[in-house]
Amino acid sequence: MATAAHQLTPDEASADPPPEAIVVRFAGDSGDGMQLTGGQFTLSTALAGNDLATFPDFPAEIRAPQGTLFGVSAFQINFGSARIDTAGDQPDVLVAMNPAALKTNVEALKPGGLIIADTGEFGQRNLDKAKYVANPLEDGSLGKWQLLPLDISALTVEAVKPYGLGNKEALRCKNMWTLGLALWMFDRDRAPLTEWLRTKFAKAPNLAEANIAALNAGHAYGETAELGAMGISQRQVAAAPSEPGLYRTVTGADSIALGLVAGAQLAGLKMFYGGYPITPASAILHALARLKEYDVITFQAEDEIAAVSSALGAAYAGSLGVTCSSGPGIALKTEAIGLAIMTELPLVIVNAQRGGPSTGLPTKTEQSDLYQAVYGRNGDAPLPVIATRSAADCFDCAIEAVRIATQYMTPVMLLTDGYLQNAAEPWKVPDMSAYEAFPVAFHTEAPAEGEKFLPYARDARLKRPWVKPGTPGLLHRIGGIEKALGTGNLDYSPGNHQAMTDIRRDKILGVDVPDQAVEQGREGGRLVVVGWGSTYGPIASAVRRARARGQDVAHVHIRHIWPMPNNLGHLLASYEHILVPEMNTGQLKTVLRDQYLLNAVPLNKVSGQPFTIGEIEAAIGRHLDSDRPEELGPDDTQLPSPEAVNP
């Protein structure tokens, strides 16, 4: 480990306090292993006790053309000694493995931030691919940042030379060299990563040792190269305060999978997951496939329709049916979701939103499926909609989706998005004994002699009974044609259709959801920022900063999108102005206006990237400074600016 040459005095320490948070972004080609590098740096950061949030950002192509601007893969992590809600606005450190990675990411770097660039990749061919006229490492164009040019490629090849790898295989280790340097820079322990590499390459020990050698070489370079002469030294970030307990790092996909299993256990049900591969939803299928010991059956169907239909069939048979997709796949599932509403069977549908429409932006994030979730079916076909706010929150939201589906005999849509699916954060593993079970009671009692079983009879919640096929005396038929009240027989009569439509509506409107809380601030005031889903982090941080400056602003974040909390309309009406940031063109804003006749003002961003704290903070300032926020023009409610678009 590097040692300090000078012991800081208390006065010196207070004059230059250690940073509370640091943002690092790794960027390179899709084949450079940036996601793996970022993931392992995240592991080391979690083990160091820092709070953290990550943002993996990668192209849709499996392997985009090497060196091209659209083939850049990046991983950003924000870690610190205090609460972290987002992956950070501007990186403090950018690791650029080639010219394209530098060009697409450098403008996001803080002024004075550090660029670590692999000079071995800055040849004329790669410069041309990145559309650089001159080498930016040499022409002075990077003057507002610190620059550490290193021939990482050559240093890696030299480090792994004893293992006899070919040049191509040797260069695949350069992400480990880079990771080693990053571990030195932030005083991280290499031992867990060394163990991980030996496990990963257990069948190829030569590759394991080569990668470990590259990792150690990068770390040793930081220790011995006297980088302090260039103003670059180790930066230490203290552990964040946390409650005692068992912690693990989870992505949103991991958390949803665990929450679905926990929900099924609390309901006393086996779970059947029917899915079809689609980005970014596939990770949930992968996670659940590893949990078979918890009575989980996973089925990769031949298409989206087969996936949802198999899950619905499992629900009819008495299991918890679950399916997952993204917007295009949800569109294909819509008819079967309507069948689930008509048959009134419990089904959890996870929608991992991505940029659209059509194929759109498969690996980028968006919140543009809210209309689809609330309104997007033929006929009057309501279902409950729940939105997750963070990777850790996905666990509780999944349990809530299972609870509502089984207690009200209805399909439920759980909204997450590409950012939450892939983002990671520390999660305190909960004590499951603190969760209230909601065991399912199947109807097993046959009717008295001379009476008929009524599969569409209602209890106080308007829920119909759930009967496993084959239960003696309870033979019944369900399907997609309108059901007669009580009997479930086919009935086309106008009065019956009106009555059944009203019952289906009233059942959903009667779902018990908790009252809406105020996240920050008080009820009533000048401005409230209303969000849903993954905008939670940047909104919470922006409102916290605004309130620290004495601004009269509050934060309300909605989990239950439909039905909405009973007190929500009254709560929002208590504020003078309502600002609704969304990664769409204003969908929640429209729902709020529709339901409560409130003048909610949108703040929209549809770029495939999450909001930054600064964007929301600036919008808060504009609204508080304006006498009539509702009259702010399109330039005040549309993000990002044209200058932010990549060349």
Automatic annotation (TrEMBL):
InterPro entries: 2-oxoacid/accept_OxRdtase_asu (IPR022367), PFOR_II (IPR033412), Pyruvate:ferred/Flavod_OxRd (IPR050722), Pyrv/ketoisovalerate_OxRed_cat (IPR019752), Pyrv_Fd/Flavodoxin_OxRdtase_N (IPR002880), Pyrv_flavodox_OxRed_cen (IPR002869), THDP-binding (IPR029061), Transketo_C/PFOR_II (IPR009014)
Pyruvate:ferredoxin oxidoreductase core domain residues: 527-590
Location of the Pyruvate/ketoisovalerate oxidoreductase catalytic domain: 31-219
Record's keyword terms, sorted: Oxidoreductase
Annotated segments matching region Disordered: 626-647
UniProt-listed Pfam families: PFOR_II, POR, POR_N
Residue ranges constituting the Pyruvate flavodoxin/ferredoxin oxidoreductase pyrimidine binding domain according to the UniProt record: 271-433
Name by which UniProt lists this protein: 2-oxoacid:acceptor oxidoreductase subunit alpha
Originating species: Sphingomonas agrestis
